[in-house]
Amino acid sequence: MSASQQDKIIAALHTLPFIDIAAEAAKRVTFLKHSLATAGVKVLVLGLSGGVDSTTAGKLAQLACDQLNQEHSTSDYQFIAVRLPYGVQADEADAQLAIEFIEPSQTVTINIEPMVKGLDVSAETLVNSLRLDAHAIDFARGNNKARARMSAQYYVGSLCNGIVIGTDHGAEAITGFFTKHGDGACDIAPLFGLNKRQVRSIAAYLGAPDALVSKVPTADLEEDNPQQADEDSLGITYDQIDDYLEGKDIDLAAKGQLESRYRQTEHKRNGPVTLYCDWAK
User: Fold this and answer.
1) Which has the least CB within 10 A, 32, 44, 125, 202?
2) Is the pTM here over 0.85, yes or no?
3) Catalytic residue among 24, 94, 168, 172
4) Worst-scoring range by mean pLDDT, 8-12, 38-42, 108-112, 275-279?
């Protein structure tokens, strides 16, 4: 029997129906330590938003650095948490709660608003000539915010000779719910292979505050509705996505929507398109 589309997606995203939470956390800390050793650097960099994904990845990163410092009797290994508000962040209290929990080696704050507004001014003539509606402009600006945040993280990484961490996991990967060359860009992705509920489980295991573990995920990019829940944007719940990634049967309409999104966002999970890509042959 040939593999179903669901089986193929699960295999591509390396998700599992069940995980050993403690073992998964330890494995991902080891992965981060190995990544530092392989790259020959001693710094991990991550943009900390105050959501459960960055909270979990940040704590794993700090644990990796703490272990390496203990193993090598040094304090050279560092995790730098980068706060990246656009002006004033609506859920800044959650970001500060995450910092208190993680206790990063260093915290840096870079307000991306001047970067984003600078591009708005530079592109104003083009925007006016295209006669775009307000929503289209806001959507494009939202993606620009994500790219500005990643640019800032890479700047910090360059200054400190560090590796930039991403927070992509199975539920984001299958839906393509990330900005290409924005939050989808990174050097290493320690949460890859997990679904959303598994990320929450690891966060809880590591001792993250309940308010962050159970927090409703939001992209917080578009200004016309900055705290819109991811599930409202997607039109599908994380429970449905996670059930699908665990190989369970879900509502046929939701299944069709997921598989359609996966096909349509394939370009986000691959490198630049070339003459030698499969579809171009």
Assistant:
1) 125
2) yes
3) 172
4) 275-279
